[in-house]
Amino acid sequence: PRSVIFDTDPSPDDAVAFLAALVSPDELEVLAITTVAGNVPVELTTRNALKALELARRTDVPVYAGAAAPLVRKLITAEHVHGRTGFDGYDLPAPTKLPQASFAPDAIVELVMSRPSGAVTLCCLAPLTNVALAMAREPRLAQHLAGIVLMGGSMSEAGNITPAAEFNFYVDPEAAARVFSSGASITMIPLDCTHQALITDARLEILRSAGTPVGTAFYHLLEFNKRFDRSKYGWPGGPLHDATVTAYLLQPNLFDGRHVHVEIECSSQLTLGASVVDWWSVAGKPANATVLRTIDSDGYFKLIFDRLLRL
Ligand code: BDR
Ligand code: CA
């Protein structure tokens, strides 16, 4: 199996992403979960990660808490989507375990650098603060990784937090910019894909009718999410953003994309955090990321919910 670290700010779509990986031991070995401020402050994202592991009876997986704020900006959160706790909609069992003592960026450096080059893939589901900090602490990190698969940015789908920017990149644009200029092998899954992957009632019903503790919990958590996306976008359901990262690792042929040049806007007030994707290679700059643009959404939900319901 491929060794992975999930860097995350749970919200339910993050939790689906790492839990689906945990039940895929033939393909993925989850070394750790690292948390960061994003959807809600880091104390809550850490607590939510621990709660999700508790629900899955996988408290053996170490959780490291990371950055409480972006590199240079004030934290912006998304309680308007995920509720005050980041996990509104269902009361998960309180965690019985504490996070590990080390700071997440240090843990990332240690876990990656103590293994051979090309052994570890970072799965990034949140603002990229921890990853940028880890790269600053260990300049060889980017090259030592097998790669980074991340949910973030938007190419032709406009923004979901400002007209121009997707949430994860908007919260910490300087971190995103550093990661994209780091030389690491990056696969970016933008809103262009995740807005095709909507949790419709029929898809939610798969979770509810499973009747298992995990199915019931995620039915309620994702149902809470859906209220926001329904009223805001008029869609039949909210996007299941972050589990696309796990789906890509398990079944890359569900996606289509291109190896292109991507830059992150860090100075304009109007377009702060926008990902500028040179899809037609008009600038002639070297490609630094594979940007996925389409997804087989039926295949995606089948894969991810099948795995989740193994729990
Ligand atoms: C991203 O923002 C978060 O709310 C989701 O978990 C996802 O990582 C989508 O813009
Ligand atoms: Ca997330």
TrEMBL record:
Keywords associated with the record: Glycosidase, Hydrolase
Any one biological process term the GO annotation gives: purine nucleoside catabolic process
One of the Pfam families matching this protein, by short name: IU_nuc_hydro
Gene3D superfamilies: Ribonucleoside hydrolase-like
EC numbers, comma separated: 3.2.2.1
Record GO cellular component, one term: cytosol
UniProt enzyme class: hydrolase
Name of the protein in question: Purine nucleosidase
Organism this protein belongs to: Granulicella aggregans
